[in-house]
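Input record (one chain):
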Amino acid sequence: MGYEEKKIIFETDSLVAQQTVNQKSVSRMARFVMKYSGGSIKDEKQASYLLLMLVALSIIFSLYLIFVSNKTVIKRGGSGPSEKELREYRLIQPF
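The corresponding structure, as predicted from the sequence alone:
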């Protein structure tokens, strides 16, 4: 019982395969920055640096809002509600 060997031949265009391998993928955000920068950002490296600076600035701004602008909305140590306000509240919410 002889089996015949069949060779499968794929027809591929090596030029297309090489172009696909050699193409460097650029992230969408970097492409967006390069497109809308008005020509001032010319390559992916510059776009990445700009995005990194934006992240750093947003972290610094967030830390500023959390730690430096420490203003409270409710004043502590105030006189509290008056006796009249307490009586009205107790009528609404009996204990």
